[in-house]
Amino acid sequence: MSSFLFKNISTAVTFDNKDRILEDIDILVVDNQIIALGKDIKAEESTEKIDGRNCVALPGFVNTHHHLYQTLFRGIKEVQEKPLFPWLIGLYEFWKHLTPEVVYYGAMVGFSELLRTGCTTTSDHHYVFPNKTSGELIDQQLKAASEIGIRFHATRGSMSLGKSGGGLPPDSVVQREEQILLDSERLINKYHDNRRFAMQRIALAPCSPFSVSRDLMVQSRDLARKKGVMLHTHLAETLDEEKFCMERYGKRPVELMESLDWLGRDVWFAHTIHVNEKDINVLKGSGVAHCPSSNMKLNSGICPTNELLKHDVKLGIAVDGSASNDGSNMWEEVRRTYLLNHLKYGTEGLNAYEVLRMATRGGAEVLGRDDIGILEKGKAADIVLFDLNDIAYAGCHDPLVGLVTCGNTSLVKLTMVNGKVAVRDGKLMTINGEEVGKEAHKLASNLVRTERLKF
């Protein structure tokens, strides 16, 4: 049995049902859950004490959408400045060379960045399975997550509609639908853990309306609901997608999802930018991953966050693939969510507390969890400490506003996942981050070097 006592935390933001913000508080953790919050908590002599003075404690950030393999494909100048469709077409030519080793190291890089910036739970949307590669790529991500110690919702993505069938991706990176469904069921049977405090879960995630068939959407839906797992896909990200859906299906993206019964509490979508009032009403009860940096870089647009929240759409924050935002920095996504929201809504914009709630409890709700995202007795011990001693926060009179708008670093003081310390003072405690970074960059350089000569 392990135990930790966080002592004298200056501000603890619980995001509980009473929206409590506690000052000068202690938090006791035993094994993987929070046992108590209060003043002057007593603990066993063997309990490790963690000083929380001048620190803000939050439940860990929850990242609701990512493409971890893309961490090894950042800054490729041939595609760097392009919008989504031509960006994808260019990058498919690099991604067709993915191997299990590349997927493993890509995941390690992404997980490292997330943990160091306060993320304790992440999902991932892996949908590229090159024809020449072993299908067990998700297994490599799960292995990496277990080794580094992050709570992980892996989604078995898929692409079945290649260029020859009218889709966007080349045929070299799509799979047969039977193959996709068999591997999806294998992963659920082998890895999905529906228990409280689960560290690994599986969801099914056909990539997008322009890269899978209607039949695969339906069969994935049926399999997911038979097995009791969630569904995920990209939706309404660009006007190009809307045009594709209208030409192929005669429906706008959200209308297509409604016709396929791809809605509800077991479904969440990435982006959801180009939607109208009717679409937003239809989305009630479903979840959305808001990806501010990616949407800015690819010039996709701004997610209508306020309207979604007003219509009871569950809303979380996400870093998206690291080639479309160049980083897996969850703290930076919080800042950009706040700034984009105020750009769009002005004085009606969300305040710092509301944005931080979206990044924590909101993300947990999107992923269908009630055991994370809250600092409360009986919840998972996913706790992040932010140190406000830095000069960058001097003169700021509200700690939450400081977290969201101030600072010139995104490295947290401490990240605890499931009762285990994964990061201290910005340094990973579970792996050798420097060695992983070197090996990842070596693999990425070798993989990209040959292909980019063809551009």
Structural features:
single chain, alpha/beta, TIM Barrel, 9-stranded mixed beta sheet, 36% helix
Helix fraction by DSSP (H/I, runs of at least 4): 25-40%
CATH domain fold name of the domain at 61-366: TIM Barrel
The first-level CATH class name of the domain at 61-366: Alpha Beta
> What is the approximate shape?
globular
Helices, by number, come to 14
Main sheet: strands, sense, barrel: 9 strands, mixed
Number of strands: 17
Q: What CATH architecture of the domain at 61-366 do you see? A: Alpha-Beta Barrel
- CATH homologous superfamily heading of the domain at 61-366: Metal-dependent hydrolases
Helix-strand category: alpha/beta
Give a verbal description of the structure:
There is one protein chain. With 455 residues, the protein is α/β, with parallel strands linked by helices. It has a domain of 306 residues: Metal-dependent hydrolases (TIM Barrel, Alpha-Beta Barrel). Helices cover 36% and strands 21% of the residues. It has 14 helices and 17 strands. Strands 1, 2, 3, 4, 5, 14, 15, 16 and 17 form a 9-stranded mixed beta sheet that branches. Strand 16 and strand 17 form a beta hairpin. Helix 2 crosses helix 14 and helix 12 crosses helix 13. The chain starts with a strand and ends with a helix. The mean pLDDT is 95.
